């Protein structure tokens, strides 16, 4: 069902609902329901596929926009590095990007004063979108989807060709959710309703989507949701499939390193509490700050311990490139010399960027290079 064309008014003020959270955590279901209940997903949308046959609810421009910005920041969608937030944060402060993002929102407010923007890459650029929304005179409000981390990891392993293993996927979930919580925390008190953000358990949405979405609508003052009609409700019932929750594995099934397992379990417990009535408290924020700092420390320790592996990979690549070619050269022919990339230049750019700056500096020093 297509959202009706509405005019901005005192009853329908400009609002952007940003659906955040890790991929495979129910963000598509939430965005799809928001669309059915009257919010506008800016067109064109990303086409449905086998991994999400009911659609993603993602504007194609937003996905392309984020992909370009992530490439510039050299950050992965599921990046487990705490430092990656500084890389994307710097891009979010660029004035040309803020202008372009605000102009795109302004274009789509001509269709409907209430928009929904969703993309698994969204959390990396929360500041950019908040500024863009405010510049258009809109309220930025956020709903973060919560799904048990073991189920998120299992879903990604099932539907995506991920070769980095459970520990990486669990760490990237931890990195994403801890920083998404911190990045949306400043919106508390911004909204017309109770606050500017809501946390929703995916399981609750599948069990009773009408109760959950109406609660979101009330707390974030989403007028389209609050004034949804019976036909839209029927469309919502046809859209939601309770069997979508197909993953049943637990953290114990992932075989994570003990400290990572502990941090993921503690973080899930704290985030889960934010979805309870009155659970978004200063005490919970303080605990999540401690967990974010603990994860940053754990990652720094892992980087320090694994530096020998980075140096070893560099030496292996150098050794392979130094081996003589086995091709046959005709007698009398002239072989043009080919400049062979040195050291880290032979590594793919994305892999080089994943190496901590301090390690890259050490490798350049070993090779006698300044850059």
Helix and strand arrangement:
Elements: E1 15-20, H1 27-36, H2 60-73, H3 84-92, H4 95-109, E2 114-118, H5 126-135, E3 139-146, H6 149-159, H7 165-185, E4 197-201, H8 202-207, H9 209-220, H10 223-226, H11 230-239, H12 258-274, H13 282-305, H14 307-322, H15 349-354, H16 357-366
Parallel strand pairs: 1-2, 1-3, 3-4
How does this structure look, described?
The chain is of the alpha/beta class and 371 residues long. Strands 2-1-3-4 form a 4-stranded parallel sheet, with helices on both faces. Helices cover 53% and strands 6% of the residues. It has helices at 27-36, 60-73, 84-92, 95-109, 126-135, 149-159, 165-185, 202-207, 209-220, 223-226, 230-239, 258-274, 282-305, 307-322, 349-354, 357-366, and strands at 15-20, 114-118, 139-146, 197-201. The chain is built from 16 helices and 4 strands. It folds into 2 domains: 15-305, Rossmann fold (3-Layer(aba) Sandwich); 307-320 and 341-371, no CATH class. It is globular, with a radius of gyration of 23 Å.
